[in-house]
Amino acid sequence: MSRLQIHDVSVRYPGMNGGETVTALSDINFTIEPGEFVVALGASGCGKTTLLNLMAGFIQPSDGYLTLGQSGIAGLPRVACGLDLDDQITGPGKDRGVVFQKHALLPWLNVLDNTAFGLKLQGFSLKERNERAAEFLQLVGLQDFHKHPVYQLSGGMQQRVGIARALTNDPQMLLLDEPLGALDALTREVLQELLLDVWKQTQKMMFFITHSVEEALFMASRLIIMSPRPGRITHEFSLNFNQIFLECRDARKVKSLPEFIAMREQVLSIIHGDEAEGGLH
Ligand SMILES: Nc1ncnc2c1ncn2[C@@H]1O[C@H](COP(=O)(O)OP(=O)(O)OP(=O)(O)O)[C@@H](O)[C@H]1O
């Protein structure tokens, strides 16, 4: 298993209509170790999605570079000299699966075919891709829904398909951009638990963005708090509420622990401080 490293990364976007350049991220140095569940939290506009898009290889940094093990992800062509890397091709890759808030499923395909779609594009045989898709549909609890059209599924079930689909390539890490943000409160809690089970069983690195402080504390083995203008990582906390849940299986109990409540208040005051300084868009 490899670690993901972010080296001296900044991202500047050109201003809209000739306006000022936006520094979305400034001097980010950060490492995600194998098996970590990292959650990013912060006021709107602090650069969370920009950071995820860099890790996915969707965008390139203005300065710095990102690596996953010995492979470049982004930014390397400008700085590759002297680096001992196996693979200097930058951009998206099968080693990173992405789950968005909007699942982008194909409405004309059933659950199994949606899950197996990426494997089809890569030329896997029907048997292979159906076996692989079935394995991950089982992991997300959709083993009885292979033939269902996706448009008949609830939002939570559709998001389960999105998670299964992202896992079919056996990526080293999952990048999740507010994956539960559009779900009702009860479904959201069920999927939080499901994602922790997926994490435990697959041991994949996770990078998860949320606006919910409670969700962040519940899911993270490491929490990063970002602040805007320019986007920076200002606080980091190592947490173990996810492990407590995986042992006791009682989310309400975990979320009402005095340590959990104290941490929630601490994090809320950090974020509200940033918003009061003008971070909220
Ligand atoms: N393509 C773009 N062009 C210009 N500016 C951009 C672009 N994408 C993002 N930005 C700006 O960069 C900053 C960081 O945006 P980003 O979407 O990464 O923040 P975020 O923390 O994910 O926000 P939110 O929580 O609202 O989703 C914001 O000021 C945003 O307006």
UniProtKB/TrEMBL annotation:
Domain of life where this protein originates: Bacteria
A UniProt-annotated Pfam family: ABC_tran
MF (Gene Ontology): ATP binding; ATP hydrolysis activity
Record carries keyword Transport: yes
Domain ABC transporter: 4-253
Keyword Lipid metabolism in annotation: no
Keywords, alphabetical: ATP-binding, Cell inner membrane, Cell membrane, Membrane, Nucleotide-binding, Translocase, Transport
Similarity comment: Belongs to the ABC transporter superfamily.
Protein name, entry field: Taurine ABC transporter ATP-binding protein
Organism lineage string: Bacteria, Pseudomonadati, Pseudomonadota, Gammaproteobacteria, Oceanospirillales
